[in-house]
Design brief:
The chain is 54% helix and 12% strand. The chain has helices spanning 16-29, 44-54, 63-87, 98-108, 113-124, 139-150, 163-179, 193-208, and strands spanning 4-9, 34-38, 91-95, 131-136, 184-188. It contains 8 helices and 5 strands. By secondary structure, it is α/β, with parallel strands linked by helices. Residues 214-220 have low confidence and may be disordered. The chain has one domain (4-216): Rossmann fold (3-Layer(aba) Sandwich), CATH 3.40.50.300. It has a 5-stranded parallel β-sheet, with helices on both faces. The structure holds P1-(5'-adenosyl)P5-(5'-thymidyl)pentaphosphate. Keywords: ATP-binding, Kinase, Nucleotide biosynthesis, Nucleotide-binding, Transferase.
């Protein structure tokens, strides 16, 4: 038995967490067993590394060292949660995965692609997404949303970067979606959360055959 692996990617505040939750609710309403998870994190070991990375403690070590930490967290997450869930026939919905490393550490951080290839092979092996939803909004909208949600909390290691950085992140995600159209679906995430959820459910139905969409009224 083999499940399906769906990842959500995009810049800060594009609505990945909101839509991961909405998609999981939608698939459960269709009678599917769903595991909702996120990166960095998802297992106790990976959540501990999340704290180290997002606090900025590893930033002075440089993007390559941060890539090593993301890969270590991912290896634990894949082995401890994702691979067993897929083997049990479940649908895994994951907020960020390998494309985030390729964008933040690779395209923007300029970490060597061959190092990232090696780390990806070590951390995920053959566990690859069946479908990647790339959520796209202009960075100023995404950052404003993230700031509203954080309501006064300090920006994390990546949120505090400047406008050029977030524009480069957006461009790199668009390039990844264009380079792998069979795996990736580009979603205009500037609409309201209900409309984005409906667009995602349509894509999941057409690409993976996982049910037709009915408005659940779940709210953002
Ligand atoms: N990272 C991660 C790397 O550098 N390399 C890696 O390999 C990995 C895995 C993770 C950081 O780590 C970096 C990338 C990131 O910078 P995080 O805390 O997980 O940090 O941050 P993000 O993934 O960026 O999550 P955010 O919480 O910032 O954004 P989301 O999940 O995209 O947005 P969400 O759903 O939380 O929504 C934000 C706010 O907007 C509202 C929501 O209600 C919420 O208040 N909202 C909408 N408002 C209007 N219209 C809509 N359609 C809306 N959808 C959501």
């Amino acid at each position: 038995m083999s499940g399906r692996f769906i990842t959500l990617e995009g810049g800060e505040g594009t609505g990945k967490s909101t839509q991961a939750r909405r998609l999981a609710q939608h698939l459960r309403a269709l009678g599917r067993e769903v595991v909702e998870t996120r990166e960095p994190g998802g297992t106790p070991g990976a959540e501990a590394l999340r704290h180290v990375i997002l606090s900025g403690a590893a930033e002075p070590l440089g993007p390559a060292a941060e890539a090593l930490l993301f890969a270590a967290a991912r290896a634990d997450h894949v082995a401890g949660l994702i691979a067993p869930a897929l083997a049990a026939g479940k649908i895994v919905v994951c907020d960020r995965f390998i494309d985030s490393t390729r964008v933040y550490q690779g395209a923007v951080g300029a970490v060597d692609a061959s190092l990232l290839d090696s780390l990806e092979g070590l951390s995920v092996g053959t566990v690859r997404p069946d479908l990647t939803l790339v959520l796209d909004v202009p960075p100023e909208i995404g950052l404003a949303r993230a700031a509203r949600r954080a309501a006064g909390a300090a920006a994390d290691r990546f949120e505090k970067e400047g406008g050029d950085y977030h524009a480069a992140v957006r461009a790199a995600f668009l390039a990844r979606a264009a380079a792998e159209p069979e795996r990736c679906a580009l979603i205009d995430a500037s609409a309201d959360a209900d409309a984005v959820a409906a667009a995602i459910a349509d894509v999941v139905a057409s690409r993976l055959g996982l049910g037709a969409y009915e408005i659940s009224g779940a709210g953002a």
